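Hi team, as promised in this morning's meeting, here are the two structures we talked about. I've kept the exact order from the run log so nobody has to guess. The first one is mostly here for context; it's the second one we should focus on when we meet again. Sequence first, then the predicted structure tokens.
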Amino acid sequence: MKAQSVLLLLMLTLPTQAVCAAQLYRWVDANGTVHYSDQPPPPSTKKVQRVGAQANVVETDKESYAMKQARQNSPVILYVTECGVPCKQARDFLGQRHIPFQTKNPENVPEDAIELKKLIGALEVPVIKVGSNFHKGFEALSWENLLHTAGYPLTDTQAAKH
């Protein structure tokens, strides 16, 4: 049954793909009549224009509305250095979740060190700050809760599990 559905879907979409890819011609005959056709004009026709078909595409933003709202209302800042496994896990976690974030390195940038010291009272990394909330150390569940509370959407894979 599934194979029949796939075959039917292919049969329905192939003709539309061929139409979209067809070359269009524009020409004016001896009487001054303008013709448009997907067939080439008669060989005796002098002024022939090939008309490229315009794609009928709606452009979309890759970032969802929920992600935009969360990013605007609760930007994510990640305080990391080259601290090894915990900092790599922190970066990887945000990357896998497709979370836009700003990285701050308190080891190399004195202003970042001052901010981190004010935030958690120490110079320890990794630290995630989501809006006005933060968590010291990498713990996937705690970070997930911070992001969820701030309105960051789940990835498709995560949504399928819930």
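And here is the second protein, the one for discussion:
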Amino acid sequence: MPQATPGEPFELFALYYARHSGRSAADNVIGGDLHDAGSDLAYFVWVAKRSDRVFVIDTGFASGEANRRGRDLLRRPVEGLALLGVDPAKVEDVILTHLHYDHAGTLDDFAGARFHVQDAEAAYATGRCMCHDFLKVPFHVEDIVAFVRHLYAGRVCFHDGAVEVVPGLSLHKVGGHTAGLQAVRVWTKRGWVVVASDVAHLYLNLHRKLPFPAVYNVAELLEGYRTVTALADSPDHVVPGHDPLVMALYPAPSPDLEGIAVRLDVAPRPFPRA
């Protein structure tokens, strides 16, 4: 847990760039009631920025993977970043929560960035686990090749466990969904917010403790729900990685960004409880 004074709070945004419709409950949970309605998936990248630093969290995918996997690409992630006033050519730090296709594509769009990743994730994505089709499916080999090229160019920053990157922003290895999945804890004007990424795809996964079916280690994933909740100031300070409700619960930064981006550094609307 970071001990330094957090200092200036970050502005924190979720940028909605793609979606996947027509999913059933069985597509989204292990062990749930299959009579429950399924949820679409929303695809996000996130931005934490303040006067001295900008961090992009994940890089999404582009049209090639959208077409190959049947996803609806709304905009290339860098196009959305530009709408938030973030020039990808000037971004110095990109946090990769993990290396799945929807979180670590388009790396070449960030020509000057260093990429922050957990040791365990790089080993997982390039090691013996990729001999198993079930574990390999969410990765795209060309994304991994691009990652390795950036590594050899000296642009990857490795971490092993929890680390405070700067006061007010820390990374926390959780695992579960992948071997080296990391969540991002961010100091904002409403307190500590945790970008959970795929620790919890949906609020349903987190609130009902039901794991998403794409998983490497179920026990680690279940423990991850406890971890991200403990890191945040409240359960309402945990932001899941793929829930369309995020766009409904949080306000847009401006009227022209309605349906494109929301602010996570302000309190959400009341959550619809069953």
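Starting points for discussion:
The mean pLDDT is 94.
The domain at 11-263 is CATH 3.60.15.10 (Metallo-beta-lactamase; Chain A).
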